[in-house]
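Hi support team,

I'm filing this because I wasn't sure whether my run with manganese (II) ion finished correctly. The job status page said complete, but I'd like someone to confirm that the output block is well-formed before I use it downstream. Pasting the exact inputs I used:
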Amino acid sequence: KLEETSPNEYQDNKFVCQRATPLKHHNTKFTDALEILERHAVYVDSTQRDSRALAFRRAACALKSYPKQITRIEEASKLSSVGNHSKKEILENGSSDEVQDILSSEFFKTMEVFSSIYGCGPATARKWYEKGYRSIADVHHAVSDGMKLTEQQTMGFKYHSDLVKPVPKEEAINIKDIVIKELSKIQPNCIVELVGGYRRGKLSGHDVDILITHQNNSKVEGLLHKLVERLEKLDLMVGRNPHFESKTLYLKSVKGIGEGSQRQGGHMDSLDHCFCMFQMGKSFENEKVEHSCMQTTGEADETGTSTGSSSSEQMAAVVRRVDLIVAPHKQFPFALLGWTGSKQFNRSLRDYAWKVLKVKLSNHGMWDHKHIPVRQVEATSEQEIFHELKLEYRDPHDRNA
Ligand code: TTP
Ligand code: MN
Ligand code: MN
Ligand code: MN
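And here is everything the job wrote out:
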């Protein structure tokens, strides 16, 4: 499955989206090292993401789609994305002194710990590091001395030990099935897709991304609010905390969807989106709540055993990050493409679309700027989007840039 192009045919195409980047590749020892260098570059200067960090990521991407293991430096020299600094890593077989020094440095280790906290990006991690904090306990101490955390960080600390545990694909599917089941009670015939890394073939992830739509636009409006309300009632969501008005971590619903969509760069969009946390493996309690909930809503067709989580009774409760996204049907293929990722694949796709075709691509749609006035280009599937962009279609499994 890996060998799609022979090394001779391999072209170091300028844009990552012009070639297949499978999940499993032949140069892990180099890409692991390059990813350390990239993370370190971000930690050192998170405002300069575009220079050093990006150079390492580009090099890693070139190696990920190279159809065989690089054994000689001359091979790497043929790849224009692999700069001198990255080449040095290959010369030293992925374990240069530089990488070893980074890995053992207090700075890097601390930044890794802080960055593992949900809601803590490199800028905050850096701020804490500069204040002299070196551990989660140090931050806790600062908080008890009055340092303010954002809501997300508060949740991030509270459930840190759960949130650093990878989510196995089976559990992601289980969460998707719960969402489908609860949605069907609010709004029949929704279309639900598990997106993010799982759709690209990953067997575990740091969160569960679920994209929802409905053929009828009037059914999409307000759908996320109703769903979140229902999930909260079932006690599937955590975040109940005297400091929060709602149990929902973050729910945004922007009017005039698509308005802000022509912004370049970044991957944030204005789709209805809820960053939430699910409490999994508490089937007994969930059922109890569902029963009392059913009495008030008058639903009588359910038996207590059909929550779909009966097998998880023995399982310890664990909190999982879930992203719920609702897109209007017309925008669904674009949202699907965007939320499938990878981030780097999306970046390259947008970069390519704009630089080569003067087309602005976002999670909402695409707009042809060569055409005056600017013309929106519609598509009803991911295949059609690639076709309009004059690109060979890439299966989600080949978007692991
Ligand atoms: P993530 O869940 O951040 O990443 P992932 O699923 O690829 O990896 P992991 O297994 O670690 O969870 O985001 C999923 C995709 O969604 C990612 O390619 C970027 C995209 N995205 C958007 O398009 N808009 C957004 O607002 C966010 C947060 C992500
Ligand atoms: Mn994800
Ligand atoms: Mn996510
Ligand atoms: Mn495949």
